[in-house]
């Protein structure tokens, strides 16, 4: 891939979109992961304002330190970058306390994980409204259009998606050229929604390179029946998640009332 030209293309696209929308810049959540690091750097290269929010909710210490190190590097490299740390842990804890009790806490782990993402989205839009910023999404192509590995109305709630046409491996290529912190480049991808060290691969059951292969195989009309062993297993995982998460990737269904019923 022509990495430097892709970088220039995305930066121009971001700047043009913001200026045409009469917005001052971008706000983005910084997680300590590769996608938010790359996206925030691309936004910073526009020269427009970039507000980086670090929003911990019972976050692992290494995720917080990577996020803060990246923000520090970004501010030293680009004068238009601003930052705020918004501790959402007490907000999250208060909400959990206000919700009805359940017999087994594990029954609502997924709901509460998604709640974390939605609290962050709410915070991003608060600052976006205050400052006339656009909320920049950090999803890549496999997450957004392959397996739907994001939270509906959480990290999926954004104004624009600069890297959503890039595979995860392509995001890493861009990170190298941008000079993203090595600790971020080497860190195992994680959604940071669980308060522990589980990775994306732990949750999905396949690595991003494997999922990229499965996505390409699916586009070529292949099915799990065409393969054996690990490839069969990976394509089965990809197909299951792609089907289960269509509700995230397809437009919201609208009940269209027949014209004759409105007369």
From TrEMBL:
<dbReference type="GO" id="GO:0008795">
    <property type="term" value="F:NAD+ synthase activity"/>
</dbReference>
<dbReference type="InterPro" id="IPR003694">
    <property type="entry name" value="NAD_synthase"/>
</dbReference>
<dbReference type="InterPro" id="IPR022310">
    <property type="entry name" value="NAD/GMP_synthase"/>
</dbReference>
<protein>
    <recommendedName>
        <fullName>NH(3)-dependent NAD(+) synthetase</fullName>
        <ecNumber>6.3.1.5</ecNumber>
    </recommendedName>
</protein>
<keyword id="KW-0520">NAD</keyword>
<feature type="domain" description="NAD/GMP synthase">
    <location>
        <begin position="7"/>
        <end position="249"/>
    </location>
</feature>
<dbReference type="InterPro" id="IPR014729">
    <property type="entry name" value="Rossmann-like_a/b/a_fold"/>
</dbReference>
<keyword id="KW-0547">Nucleotide-binding</keyword>
<keyword id="KW-0067">ATP-binding</keyword>
<comment type="similarity">
    <text>Belongs to the NAD synthetase family.</text>
</comment>
<keyword id="KW-0436">Ligase</keyword>
<comment type="pathway">
    <text>Cofactor biosynthesis; NAD(+) biosynthesis.</text>
</comment>
<dbReference type="Pfam" id="PF02540">
    <property type="entry name" value="NAD_synthase"/>
</dbReference>
